[in-house]
Amino acid sequence: MPDSTDAWPYPRWVAHRGAGKLAPENTLAAFRTGAAHGYRMFECDVKLSSDGVPFLLHDSLLERTTSGQGTAGAHSWQALSQLDAGSWHSRAFAGEPLPTLEAVARFCQHNGYLLNIEIKPTPGTERQTGKVVATTAARLWQGQAVPPLLTSFQPEALQGALAAAPQLPRGLLLDTLWTGWLETARTLGCVAVVCNQALWDTASLTQAKSAGLRCLSYTVNDEWAAERLLDLGVDGIITDRVDLFAPAA
Question: What domains appear along the chain, each with residue ranges and CATH number?
Fold first, then answer.
């Protein structure tokens, strides 16, 4: 079982999808924007191309944030790499490409930044995506002092990550406190639970911390909400508002 008394290597403030909404999410441009606001840890979503390349994208479909169409995981990386993932946001980011996990790893390591990788499988590929993302992350961060934190809403994806790279820290994402969530986190050897901010109260926080788990919150964009969570004693706050919250606070 994880031990919450162990040193926690991650900062309290985490930039959601790179820079929240100030730049096209899940792109290197977003990471650079978040870094320019002082953030040194970033959250991103990673799924697999049809030929098994881990790359950054939140949605299962391409339409919302790229110039492509259809299910992202049905396309090869060669095809995905040609897409425009910036114009949907604003002209300033026109032509921004989708990044691979490898490109993001290079960026973070070169600059001393930390990463929360949300494993975001194409439906039906949960375990395989967890395995490939974890295997790739273990290779890319080999020898680094602080590994990425791997999280997912899908227990099966975390099972794949556990099987492939048990040494990497894992966290269970929750949008509800469904029956068995705590036991699932324990069974998966998680070090953290990452909850919708509304789920945290004294009772749920005590439950998680008593099990040796760190407690993180998403997506916190209001000052009152951040103050409430900080008063409760959460360990991490994932935010879009990199322009509002000073990450050293």
Answer: 13-23+31-47+112-239 (3.20.20.190)
Paired sense of beta strands 114-119 and 54-56, if any: unpaired
* d(C-alpha 15, C-alpha 28), whole Å: 13
Q: Residue 6: what pLDDT?
A: 67
List 58, 75, 89, 110, catalytic entry: 58
| Tens of pLDDT, residues 160-212 | 999 999 999 999 999 999 999 999 999 999 999 999 999 999 999 999 999 99
String of b and e for 23-60 (b: at least 16 CB within 10 Å)? Answer: bbbbbbbbbebbbebebbbbbbbbbbbeeebbbbbbbe
Annotation says 16 is catalytic: yes
- Confirm whether 58 is a catalytic residue: yes
Q: Would you say how long the chain is, in residues?
A: 249
